[in-house]
Design goal:
Bound molecules: (2S)-2-hydroxybutanedioic acid
Strand order of the largest sheet: 2-10-9-8-7-3-4
Shape: globular
Number of strands: 13
Number of helices: 14
Length: 400
């Protein structure tokens, strides 16, 4: 008998597993609104021109592929710090930030969670918004954290339950790690305002909580600077320490390159240096060092003023197309006599928490080959002029 004979079947991933089911669906007219991937109006994952130009230079350079340092490419980390914290950041000037290139944003979350578990031991406790990206729970649980929720989304208003959020955060034990979405909250698309971030930061500081900011969609709401408001507010709040995981999967359309970064902010330069040493020992035991190509692509774009500007324009175009699809989704559903979906226009980023029930989502998949998450989250960035009529007619039908 095999030693694995008693290993049972693990459940499929609610997001990536759904894409597997979608791929296997033989129906010709089908739409994947499940996973958070931006596609262009032709339904293709775009190759950004700024990225393509760096890629061409790299192809000609034909550089040997040695190992990167454990913490990744220096230029990548430098440019990441500027993008996340701001080129004029006082934290950066004071040497308070330790940054390492990671295997995607998920890798940053896991390395960060593992390191925090080493520091916090049995007290490791994560509070995440209700709802949050499902993998947040899975990653921190795998790292040995206890998990809890804080109120966040208000079903009735389709907006933020800000009072509930503050009340729940205010009850957490000092030292609790508080997972925050920097912008384009996944799955709801509902973000705090700048003024609300000030209040959140003040509360986190007063209560001795540790913010862990996940920034996977920088540039998909307003622009790369405005979308980093949460990080800038935390930096200015005087809070002694916080953590940021960021990802370029979406903003550079480099999903498969697994380009992310982890930044630990310490109270001073010495603390940041010590933190970096532990980030490196943590990475070494998981995947040793990150991958070269994606890191060079991102660094090459961000280091060049011309390509950086081109990238910001291309990011803006992706953002605009999503806004246009939100508006079309709302207008077409109104024209079809469906219940009011106007709130979708106010949501930020790739997703809409559509309010569709699990039963309606099941009908969309079974009857129309339209895939959405059972929570009702749909990826608006997967809508295009070729599928929007089909999708809105189907949504109207399941709402009837
Ligand atoms: C999503 O939420 O769909 C994306 O972040 C992709 C993923 O890894 O789940």
């Amino acid at each position: 008998m095999s030693i694995f004979a008693n290993v049972d079947m693990a459940p499929g991933d609610p997001i990536l597993g759904l894409t597997e089911t979608y791929r296997a669906d033989p129906r010709k007219e089908k739409v994947n609104l499940g996973v958070g991937i931006y596609v262009d109006d032709a339904g293709k994952v775009p190759v950004l021109e700024a990225v393509r130009r760096v890629g061409e230079t790299l192809a000609h350079a034909n550089a040997p592929s040695s190992y990167l340092p454990i913490d990744g490419l220096a230029a990548y980390n430098r440019e990441t710090q500027k993008l996340v914290f701001g080129a004029d950041s006082a934290l950066l000037a004071a040497g308070r930030v330790a940054t390492a290139q990671t295997i995607g944003g998920s890798g940053a979350l896991r390395v960060g969670a593992d390191l925090l578990k080493q520091v916090l031991g049995d007290k490791a406790h994560l509070a995440a918004s209700k709802p949050t990206w499902g993998n947040h729970h899975a990653v921190f649980k795998a790292a040995g954290f206890k998990l809890s929720d804080y109120r966040y989304y208000d079903d009735a208003s389709h907006g933020l339950d800000f009072a509930g959020m503050l009340e729940d955060l205010g009850k957490l034990e000092p030292g609790t790690v508080v997972l925050l979405h920097a912008c384009c909250h996944n799955p709801t698309g509902v973000d705090p305002s700048a003024a609300q971030w000030q209040q959140i930061a003040a509360l986190l500081k007063d209560r001795g909580l540790l913010p862990f900011v996940d920034m996977a969609y920088q540039g998909f709401d307003k622009d790369a600077v405005a979308d980093a408001t949460a990080v800038r507010v935390l930096a200015d709040s005087g809070i002694p320490a916080f953590v940021v995981a960021n990802s370029y999967s979406k903003s550079f359309s480099l999903y498969g390159e697994r380009v992310g970064a982890l930044s630990f902010v310490g109270a001073d330069r010495g603390e940041a240096e010590r933190l970096l040493s532990h980030i490196k020992t943590t990475i070494r035991t998981i995947y040793s060092s990150p991958a070269t190509h994606g890191g060079k692509l991102v660094a090459g774009v961000l280091e060049s003023p011309e390509l950086h500007a081109l990238w910001e324009r291309e990011l803006g175009a992706m953002r605009e197309r999503i806004h246009a699809m939100r508006a079309a989704f709302v207008d077409k559903l109104a024209a079809l006599g469906a219940p009011d979906f106007g709130f979708v226009n106010a949501q930020a980023g790739m997703f809409s928490y559509s309010g569709l029930s699990k039963a309606q989502v099941d009908r969309l998949r079974e009857e129309y080959a339209i895939y959405a998450l059972s929570s009702g989250r749909i990826c608006v960035a997967a809508l295009n002029t070729g599928n929007i009529d089909y999708v809105t007619r189907a949504v109207a039908a399941v709402c009837r």
